[in-house]
Amino acid sequence: MDMKLEVVVVPVADVDRARAFYEKLGWRLDADFTDGENFRVVQFTPPGSPCSIIFGTRISAATPGSSEGLHLVVPDIEAARAELADRGVEVSEVFHDAGGVFHRAGTEGRVTGPDPERRSYSSFLSFSDPDGNGWVLQEITTRLPGR
C-alpha cells in the first residue's frame, strides 16, 4: 500500500504573522478556515510540492517554533538562496557538511559554500519562520536509485 506524506503541522504563536511569512515565501495558500475564535487552520503548499504545511489555533499542542529540520528539495541551491533573499527572508549562506555526508543539528560541522564536488544531496541552506521553526533546503540534482 502506498503511503504519502500529505501534511506537516508547524506550531506557531501568531497565526496571522505566520500566514504573512509563508505568503512572502511565495507558497500557495490552500485554506484559511475558522470555526469561531477557538479554532483556525491555515494550509500552505510550497511550489511543486505534493506535501503541505498547516498551522493555526488549536492545531497542535507543540511549543511554537519547536519544529526543526523541515526539508525542502531544490535543483539549484544558489538560485533558491537568491530567491529567498529577494523575498526578504533571512537565510543562511549555502553550506555543506565537513564530513561530507549530511548536515548535523545546529551549525556544527557546517562549511561555507556548496559541496566542492557539487554532489547531489550535499549542499544546503537554512532559514527559520518568525517563531523559529527551522527549514533546510537541500540541493538534489540526481536522485538516488529507487526514488
Itemize the secondary structure elements and their pairings.
Elements: E1 7-9, H1 15-24, E2 28-34, E3 40-45, E4 52-57, E5 70-74, H2 77-86, E6 95-97, E7 110-112, E8 124-128, E9 134-139
Parallel strand pairs: 1-4, 5-9
Antiparallel strand pairs: 2-3, 3-4, 6-7, 8-9
What can you see in these coordinates?
The protein is of the alpha/beta class and 147 residues long. The chain contains 2 helices and 9 strands, in the order E-H-E-E-E-E-H-E-E-E-E. The strands form 3 sheets. Strands 1-4-3-2 form a 4-stranded mixed sheet, covered by helices on one side. Strands 5-9-8 form a 3-stranded mixed sheet, with helices on one face. A two-stranded antiparallel sheet has the order 6-7. It is globular, with a radius of gyration of 16 Å. The chain starts with 6 loop residues before the first strand and ends in an 8-residue tail after the last strand. The model has no long low-confidence stretch (mean pLDDT 93).
Question: Which characteristics define this entry?
Answer:
147 residues; alpha/beta; four-stranded mixed beta sheet; 2 helices
Short description:
The protein has 147 residues and is of the alpha/beta class. Helices cover 14% and strands 30% of the residues.
Q: How many beta-strand segments? A: 9
Distance between the termini: 16 Å
Strand order of the largest sheet: 1-4-3-2
Sketch the major β-sheet: 4 strands, mixed
Whole-angstrom Rg: 16 Å
Strand content: 25-35%
Outline the low-pLDDT stretches.
none
Q: What form results from the Cα inertia axes?
A: globular
Q: Percent of residues in helical segments?
A: 10-25%
- What string, H for helix and E for strand, traces the elements in order? EHEEEEHEEEE
